[in-house]
């Protein structure tokens, strides 16, 4: 089968993207009408979410022809939420809804059970799922107007079982075993791990989800790319013309050197959404952030993918003999200063901590003052994180 040529992150006109994004509401504010955006503005905003897009021409055509495209995102309730899942997903969802899209967030409880999260205990998995929804509400995901739906996989599949399971079986029937096993990465597993039947069933089900939810866009991380490509290949098998568009977002790294992805099982690698101010400060202080080095620097990645999209700027406070205070309005300007040594990690890290704490403060307040949220957090913290 011919390999699709993905569209990598575009060399966008940053000024025009900035103007378009200025029309998108700030996190936590009420939704602004997407009608004020032109087709090109919608395209730039939606496309900016993805590190890779398969395919850009299909995305532009979809936004032109369909007033409310359906975007699918999903997650396994598997423990405490880190900032990539909390803040980055909120940024992306708000961009989508402001551009006229509808977002279906798939609470993949059955998938978490298949993947042995929370020891396969569905009651614990449900508790974690409710905790995650509380965080998105508190951090500022735009949930007004009903453009975002949280759907529990167990409930939805059971209610339309006669539609779902034949689809799963057909996907399984049309694919060879090695092709499905190569999708094990979506479970956080490798082909070298001890094989369970779940590694066969899980990708077939996740592929079926895309069609079951009638998704026009698969808006998931780069680690889910393989199964999304499988869905497009399945369209070829069944002679379906309209394929789901793949919009794969960047995966934020862990805070320590060489950690390509945050890990919930390693608290030092990530910042959790309800970490207190002191914890955030300590984790950033200990984070890998070598002077002059941009590549593989997690602190710079957090600024690029979290701080700039959230605040549209980044302010560094420092003594006059170190250059004085400076507000950066573009990431490129920040990188230039850092790579030249004008900006030192000793000044960048406190500024990053301050910005992150400002984002997380409403979440802390919610889990401190809301009795239901407080109880959920207490229970989730007591659960042992499983791989």
From TrEMBL:
A GO-annotated cellular component: cytosol
Principal location: cytoplasm
Record EC number: 6.1.1.1
Pfam families registered for this protein in UniProt: tRNA-synt_1b
Keywords: Aminoacyl-tRNA synthetase, ATP-binding, Cytoplasm, Ligase, Nucleotide-binding, Protein biosynthesis
Residue segments, region Disordered: 1-36
Top EC class for this record: ligase
Superkingdom, taxonomy of origin: Eukaryota
Keyword Kinase attributed: no
SUPFAM superfamilies per the UniProt record, alphabetical: Nucleotidylyl transferase
Cell location: Cytoplasm, Cytosol
Biological process, per Gene Ontology: tyrosyl-tRNA aminoacylation
Polar residues bias locations: 1-18
Known catalytic reactions: tRNA(Tyr) + L-tyrosine + ATP = L-tyrosyl-tRNA(Tyr) + AMP + diphosphate + H(+)
GO MF: ATP binding; tyrosine-tRNA ligase activity
The keyword Protein biosynthesis belongs to this UniProt entry's keyword annotation: yes
Role played: Catalyzes the attachment of tyrosine to tRNA(Tyr) in a two-step reaction: tyrosine is first activated by ATP to form Tyr-AMP and then transferred to the acceptor end of tRNA(Tyr).
Family to which the UniProt record says this protein belongs: Belongs to the class-I aminoacyl-tRNA synthetase family.
PANTHER family given in the database record: TYROSINE--TRNA LIGASE, CYTOPLASMIC, TYROSINE-TRNA LIGASE
Protein name (record): tyrosine--tRNA ligase
Annotated source species: Cucurbita argyrosperma subsp. sororia
